[in-house]
Predict the structure of Ribose 5-phosphate isomerase B.
Amino acid sequence: MIVLGSDHGGLDLKNEIRKMLEARGLPCEDLGTHNGDSVDYPDFGIAVSRRVSEGSAEKGILVCGTGIGMSIVANKFPGIRAALATDVFMATMAKEHNNANILVLGGRVLETEKAREMVAAWLDTEFAAGRHQKRLDKIAEVERELKG
Ligand code: RB5
């Protein structure tokens, strides 16, 4: 399950991404926003991040105007590795090296076709594990320390 969320600044791109996921036959749930009214990006960032953090969704995609606010809120959640990507290389590395479980995009900075390519790259790339797993383990460890 992939959960999607955006504010008004990411609405159009989030809708395009939902159509793309549906066309691929991937189970997804759109947690809003559902219209162009001005809303607060944390509300939707929290809804998506909570689902991924708790494990009821495997992955999430968040879109706001720049992607900055959504990445700040998402990375507050335990176990969330949210990656703000601006091109296909970054989206690829977000999975290959960081095993990002949330991809964050900026609706006001990306062309739709490029964003589709980025989402496809993130979905289709395998996590390389090995030395990268060791690095993620260090992040998980400090997260436990800071929480405890
Ligand atoms: C909303 O105007 C804008 O601040 C938001 O979409 C996002 O870019 C925040 O980081």
Summary: Strands lie at 2-6, 28-30, 59-64, 82-84, 102-106. The chain is about 50% helix and 15% strand.
